[in-house]
Amino acid sequence: MTTTAFRPATRANRAVGPDGPQIGSRPPLRGLLPFVALLVLWQLFGTDDSTFFPRPSTWLPAVVEFAESGELATALAGTAVTFTVGLLLATAIGVVLGVVVGSVRFVDRMLNPFLEFVRAMPSSAQVPIFVLILGFTESMKLTVVVLTAMFPVLLSTRSGMREMNPVLLDVARTLHLSRYDRIRKIVVPSLFSSILTGVRIATPVVLIVTLIVEILTQVPGLGGSLSLAQQYYQTSLAYGLIVITTVVALGVNIAIGLIDERLFRHRRR
Amino acid sequence: MTTQAQRARPLGPRLLAKINLPGVTFLIVLFAVWEAADRAGLIDLMFLPRPSEILSAGATLIAQNAFLPTVGHTVSVTLTGWAIASCSGLMIGFALGMSRRVWVYSMSTIELFRALPSVVLLPIAVLVFGFSVQMELVLVIVSAQWPVMVSAVDGVRLVPQGLRDTATTLRLGRLETARKIILPAALPKVLVGLRLSLALSLILTVAAEMPRRCSVTRRAWATRWSRPRKRCRPTRCSSTSSPSGCSACCSTPPSSSSPG
Questions:
Q1: Which domain holds residue B157?
Q2: Which of A100, A148, A175, B193 would you label with B175, given CA atoms 20 to 30 Å apart?
Q3: pLDDT tens digits for range A113-172
Q4: Residues paired with A47 in a beta bridge
């Protein structure tokens, strides 16, 4: 904020940031005006018992009723578990594969068609396959999530391995660092930021794919409850759940933004 | 020397040289091992047939003329939705990027809707439109426009001030500026957005086309949340989807999740 005060001419550019609006961009809250207007109009002109567009005031009671039955906690827990475990697994597998593929050219060439094939498969199309193989289980959810979300981490780790500054490795040689020290002091720190970049891209993907799987298969989770609410024409509950999902997604986005700002501040300057 | 020799060679060997041999070999070996292991009885994957069985099933689908129309439907919905989403996303994005006032008074709303994982709109779309082409198109259009829109906003705002000044000097009108100055300068960013939204369109089309499945949870839900329903749309069990998907899931008892 202090820097923008000195350079009012670039304020518009600053607000967006060099890498897109999600990084360090704070559009003013006044921008919510159209959204609020929509909700108010909906509340004024809608009816409570509409099948498709129940008034916003009916959403909260529906969600409260849902929460009191304990279903909401189950749903949130289901989604949270898949999200966390999926993100961890995707990161681990992505980093290992990325390091292997990034350091050995032959392996890269060998695995490339296979990985590209898996990557091109839309996650929603993988769902039926893994439902058949694994059933409506947590492992099915995780498989689809990990198969989709590991690729950002893999690709970013691979390019990190490729683009590792050769001077750094020369420094290690000049200083006669042992192999352990070289990995600990040179390789890991220089890969760290590429891995984090991959994880940053993968995080929203994990959330979205988790919801896709849940909606398509109606396994326990936010998406599953949403899908069931739709099926049983509890439209207010469906809208309420969408609001909750949005809040969760916004929370994830904000968390990524904060981590990003803290870790990559030095790079942006 | 080598390049000349390559150039002198006929087309066939040159194409052959472009093929990623290790990659192809890996795939072939993978499928061969899978096939051999299954035939020898080393692995017995109940729901994962051999590659040869998958191939013959695919051939049967094509022969029955059940496959290509489905592909056509998916591709046409994806492309139509993507095209409409791109246009609307581009226009809204340009409005947001070029006018400070529009940006201030609506960007937060856009960010809010963009944060919403678009697939959660699927249940609402099904409610409102039923299982129809309209539902698929609406879902694709609503969700696939965000990447285009956001990248357009980005691209427009990052157009160098020098170019804008040129437009002012030349006394170009708003439309002219957008067409002749901003659009070319913002194009790289916009193209990135277009690519992202094409992938998203395909994912959402496939998700929207999937028939509802009966699951274990649905029964539990039905007993707990049984209320008078207003009206029922029949759940679609289309023959075009994977043939085993529907019948297997609807006819087998809930215990099917543990094969045995």
A1: 68-209
A2: B193
A3: 888 888 888 888 888 888 888 888 888 899 999 999 999 999 888 888 888 877 887 888
A4: A54
Tell me if A31 and B103 make a contact (CB, 8 A cut-off): yes
Q: Chain B contact for A69, CB < 8 A?
A: yes
**Which CATH number characterizes residue B133's domain?**
1.10.3720.10
> Distance (Å, rounded) from C-alpha A262 to C-alpha A265?
6
Are B104 and A31 an interchain contact pair (Cβ–Cβ within 8 Å)?
yes
Q: What is the CATH number of the domain that holds A149?
A: 1.10.3720.10
Instruction: Verify that B25 and B122 share a domain, yes or no.
Output: no
Is residue A181 within 8 A of residue A91, CB to CB? The reply is no
- The candidate with the shortest Cα–Cα distance to B127, out of A55, A233, A94, A190, is A233
For residue B118, list chain A residues with Cβ-Cβ distance below 8 A: 208
Q: Which residues of A touch B30 (CB under 8 A)?
A: 114
Q: How many folded domains does chain B comprise?
A: 2
pTM of full prediction above 0.80: no
Which among B30, B115, B203 is the nearest to A122, CB-wise? B203
B19 vs A contacts (CB less than 8 Å): none
Q: A259 lies in which domain range?
A: 70-268
User: The complex's ipTM?
Assistant: 0.73
Are B95 and B159 part of one and the same domain?
yes
* A265–B contact, CB cutoff 8 A: no
Question: Is B51 in the same domain as B96?
Answer: no
- What pLDDT digit, counting tens, does each position of A72-120 carry? 888 999 999 999 999 999 999 998 898 888 878 888 888 888 888 888 8
